[in-house]
Amino acid sequence: MTARIREFLAARRPEGPCLVLDLDVVRDNFLSFRRALPDSRVFYAVKANPAPEVLSLLAGLGSNFDCASVAEIEMALEAGATPDRISFGNTIKKERDVARAFLLGVDLFAVDSIAEVEKVARQAPGARVFCRILCDGAGAEWPLSRKFGCEPEMAIDVLEAAQQRGLAAYGVSFHVGSQQGNTEAWDGALASAAEIFRVLGERGIHLKMVNLGGGFPTRYLRDIPAVEAYGRSIENAIRSHFGNRIPETIIEPGRGMVGSAGVIKTEVVLISQKGGADDMRWVFLDIGKFGGLAETMDEAIRYPLVTRHEGAASTPCIVAGPTCDSADVLYEKTPYDLPITLEIGDEILIEGTGAYTTTYASVAFNGFPPLQAYVI
C-alpha cells in the first residue's frame, strides 16, 4: 500500500467499498517490464483494469494493448493508442466484431481454430493472425483451462489455412497461467513454438512473432520472483530454442501491471457464529464475490487483509460477502486468520486488488451498487 493511497482514504473517507488505484505504481510496473524484457513489446491486457486513466497513462508511455472486445479496442483508441498498437487477442469473436475492428484499423488477430481463421479471412482480408496453443499452466495459482488454444500440432494446420486464405500467418501465442510463480514456465511453450516455426518454415511459411502472453504475478500473501528473474529466464529460453533466429516477441501483462497498484477499502458488517458448539467466527464484509472479488472463487487468490488491529492475537475466521447468495463466501475451505479484537464497523484494507476487481463487479446484484473506483 502506498502513502498516496493511505492519504487519499484518510482525507476523503469514501463511503462503502471502493478501490483506490495509484498510477505511480502502474508507471513503475510498466518501466520494470520494459527494463526486464527490453526486446519485447508490451501489450497491456486491458481486461485487467480498463480505467481510462490507466489506459491513457500507458498509451503515453508507449504501451500497446491486448483487447478482448470491440469495446476495449475503442477504449484503447480513445486513450491515444493507434490501431497498429492494438491486438484483438480473444480467440472467440463474432464475425461482425472482426469486421468492426478491421474497420477501426486493427489488423492483428488471435485464432485457435480454422473456423476462426475463416471468419477473419472473410472480414479482415490480408490481416495478420497468430495462433494460440495450449499450455499446461503448471506453477500458476490460477491455471487456465482448455477453453483457449489448440494442440501445437493443430496450430500448424491453422496457420497454414490462414496463409492459404490470404491472411498473413504471423506467429504463435500461449499463456502459462495466471499468477505464475515459476520463472521457467515459458520454456516448454517456447519449445513448442520453435517447432511450429520450423515445420512451417519448411513449408515456405515464415512466422515472425511469439506472443509470450501474461502470467506475470502480483504479490499477495506470498513473495514472488522479481520481474527481472522472469526476463532472464524467458530470454534464455528464447535463445535456447530459437538460436540465432530470434523472433519478434510481445508480452501481455495485466495483473502484473496493475494488481499491486490497487487497494480495496471494505467494512465489517457482521461478526457471528453458527451455534454454541461452533467456535468458528464468520466475518461478513460489505464486499464479496459479486462486488469485485470473483477471483476468490475456489480460494484461488488469497488477498492480504490489513486491519487497525495489526499485532493483536488472531483466530481463524470464515470470510464472506454481504449478498443473499450462499456462494458469496470468500474463504472457508482455508479460514483466514483475523484479529480477535476485530469489531463490527471496522475497516479492512484488501491489498493487491488493482486487477480483475472493478470489471468483475456486478451491476446491482441484491441492489448493491457497482464497486466505486478512484484513480489517483
UniProtKB/TrEMBL annotation:
Under the heading PANTHER family, the entry gives: ARGININE/DIAMINOPIMELATE/ORNITHINE DECARBOXYLASE (PTHR11482), ORNITHINE DECARBOXYLASE 1-RELATED (PTHR11482:SF6)
Domain Orn/DAP/Arg decarboxylase 2 N-terminal, first and last residues per copy? 25-258
The molecular function terms in GO held by this entry are: ornithine decarboxylase activity
Can you name this protein? ornithine decarboxylase
Q: Which cofactor does it need?
A: pyridoxal 5'-phosphate
- Name the Enzyme Commission number(s) assigned to this protein: 4.1.1.17
Family in the record: Belongs to the Orn/Lys/Arg decarboxylase class-II family.
UniProt modified residues of type N6-(pyridoxal phosphate)lysine = K47
Q: Which domain of life is it from?
A: Bacteria
List the catalytic residues: C324
Annotated InterPro entries? Ala_racemase/Decarboxylase_C, De-COase2_N, De-COase2_pyr-phos_BS, Orn/DAP/Arg_de-COase, Orn_de-COase, PLP-binding_barrel
What keywords is this UniProt entry annotated with? Lyase, Pyridoxal phosphate
What's its top-level EC category? lyase
The species is Methylobrevis albus
UniProt keyword annotation of Lyase present:
yes
Provide GO CC annotations from the record: cytoplasm
Instruction: Describe the reaction catalysed, as an equation.
Output: L-ornithine + H(+) = putrescine + CO2
Q: Please indicate if the UniProt record lists Lyase as a keyword.
A: yes
Q: Name one GO biological process term.
A: putrescine biosynthetic process from arginine, via ornithine
* Pathway assigned to this chain's UniProt record: Amine and polyamine biosynthesis; putrescine biosynthesis via L-ornithine pathway; putrescine from L-ornithine: step 1/1
